[in-house]
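WARN retry 2 of 3 for item q-0093 after timeout on previous attempt; input resubmitted unchanged.
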Amino acid sequence: MADHLPYFLVAESEGTLVAAAGLELYGTCALLRSVVVNENQKGKGVGAELVQRLVERAGADGLEALFLLTTTAADYFPRFGFVRIDRAALPQSCMPPRNSVEHALRARS
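OK item q-0093 returned
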């Protein structure tokens, strides 16, 4: 996990951590991971700002593909250019160990 820390962002409000999100890089692809927002900050755009910054960073860093895995939030991510894909379409090189997911999404190229 330490290898991925440079690709994680956090948001603070008055010294309190209110949101976090990150990328796990696997060769030329990445997984958008751990998008979390404090309950009292939901709906204020904090999580959306972190996701947008990470999507832009993935493009700027020349990654060929950006994926995410989710069991609960598949309907949230299309606004950032993600589309549902069959989980089998996810390259094995982008699959973290021991992950059970219901939905896989890929950012549009």
